[in-house]
Every structure is written in C-alpha cells, then in structure tokens.
Specification:
By secondary structure, this protein is mainly alpha-helical. 64% of the residues lie in helices and 0% in strands. The protein is elongated, with a radius of gyration of 21 Å.
Length: 207
C-alpha cells in the first residue's frame, strides 16, 4: 500500500516537473480529493522540493490521509501553530490526537486550555477519550490505567466537557483522575470542584 502512494502515476512526468509551481498549488489547496494530494506530494518529493504548508482545508485532508508521510507532515504543521488547533474539524483533530508524536501532542496540549470554549475542541477530546478507555472509567472500574496522552485529555474532559456526562459519571471520572494522576496545579481545578456538592468535593480532595 505504501508503494501505491509513493509512486508517481502521472502520464506526463516531464511536463509536471517543468511546472512545479502548479503542483505546489494543487498540494496546498487540495480540499477533498486525497488522491490528488497524494500525487502532488509524490511529485514534489521526487523532485526534492521543499514541501509548502497546507491551507486549513488541505491540512484537514492530510491528517486523515492513508499515506503516513503526509500524515506526519500535517501533524508537524499543526504542532508548529497550536493556537490554530480549533480550526480543524473533529475528525482531523482526533486524527492528530491519534497519530502525533509525544512532542507534537505536548505542544498542542499546552494550547488546549485557551481553546476550551471551542465546541470542536471539546467534541474532539470527548470522542477521542470515549474510544480510549473512558467508558470503563465511567462505570467505576478501578483497574483501568490509560496511557499518559489519554490521561491528560481525560483531565481536560472533566474540566471543560463534563456537561455531556451524568453526575455519577462525572464523579467516577474525577475519582479516577484523583487516584491516578492527582489534581496537580490546584488552581486549574477550582471551578471544577465548585461544581460538586460539598460532600463530593470532600471525597475528591481526599482521593
């Protein structure tokens, strides 16, 4: 499959090699045709050209690309401008959570707090953690220990997307976070604790 994406399938390679500015534009602006984006990427790579940054629409398409080098390029571009993460749609944002490196994820994670009011960010985080261990945690299963990336997004969910959960679910999630990572940086948790009845806040603080 990788060979399929790496090879050039155009019938007039010399003509395209002589018109690389057009190829760059096709690469940058591809919106919905993955095959076109793959082809333009292969042409530019074959000519050892610097790969230009994608438009937002092209970036969304690239994050969902089946070709790993394109996906890696897109993850790098997102991590270099984390303040624009909220411009992705939910599917592209989830793909970034799934495929980015730890360093790329860390760069974006630091910027998520300032974008917590964006519905696309909250929805992407919630959908991602839902597929990576949230449900057993909401059932109160104690032996679930998600990887660090998921734990960070679980904390984000509790602080910023808990309106999608029932009160028992919120409490189970909070207890899980308290028992695994603890409530580090207490200042970012104050509003969360205020949302709980006093008896439940006491239980969380003692976990």
């Amino acid at each position: 499959a990788d060979e399929l994406y790496r090879r050039r399938w155009d019938r007039a390679p010399r003509a395209w090699n002589g018109n690389l500015s057009l190829v760059r534009n096709l690469w940058r602006n591809a919106r919905s045709i993955a095959a076109l984006q793959n082809w333009a990427f292969a042409v530019l790579k074959s000519q050892r050209c610097e790969i230009p940054k994608l438009t937002n629409a092209g970036l969304k398409l690239a994050l969902l690309s089946p070709h790993k080098p394109i996906q890696r390029f897109a993850c790098t571009q997102v991590s270099e401008a984390p303040s624009t993460f909220h411009r992705l749609d939910s599917a592209a944002a989830i793909a970034f959570f799934e495929f980015s490196t730890n360093r790329q994820f860390s760069a974006v994670h630091e910027a998520l707090e300032s974008q917590a009011d964006k519905q696309v960010v909250k929805q992407a985080v919630f959908d991602f953690v839902s597929d990576h261990g949230l449900q057993p945690i909401l059932r109160g299963e104690c032996d679930v220990v998600p990887p660090p990336r998921v734990r960070k997004l679980l904390a984000f969910t509790l602080r910023h997307a808990r309106e999608t959960l029932s009160e028992p679910d919120v409490l189970n999630l909070a207890l899980h976070i308290g028992e695994t990572d603890g409530f580090k940086k207490p200042e970012i948790w104050r509003d969360t604790f205020r949302a709980f009845p006093d008896r439940k806040s006491t239980r969380l603080n003692s976990s």
